[in-house]
Amino acid sequence: MAGITSVETKLFCKAKGDTDFTEIELLMEVPELGGDPEKIDVTTLSDKVKKYIPGVKDLGDLAFKFLYDNSTANSNYRVLKGLEENNTLATFKVQYPDGTAHEFDAYVSVKMDAAAVNAALTFTATFSLQSDITVTNPS
Hints:
Pfam families: Phage_tail_3. By secondary structure, the chain is mainly β. It has one helix at about 75-85, and strands spanning about 10-15, 20-25, 25-30, 35-40, 50-55, 60-65, 90-95, 100-110, 120-130, 135. It has a single domain, classed as Factor Xa Inhibitor, CATH 4.10.410.40. Helix content is about 5%, strand content about 40%.
């Protein structure tokens, strides 16, 4: 089994009502995708050890890092900032080099990262999940 490198991992976006995904370019970092269910304590007074059942998963927010580009109408910063300003629910897809993809619906918020000498100008887009994360495998 070969490992997957991050080369050619891409993020795509589709606003509700759109039919096609558009790539959000200059992606630098993808967060962990997935989550663990909360533990619900079901221990009774007659139990000798604590017992749990799985509860609801809290997938948290997803923070993606991008190299900043605001040079065109389709630049990564403008597209994501536009979704934030219009409070647009969109579908996002992270696709890996082998064709595996994670897809989810989310609202986005954008913030500029700190600027420094001899450092790339970046921003972080944080996605507030509104659906489960579905996985599609390559065919």
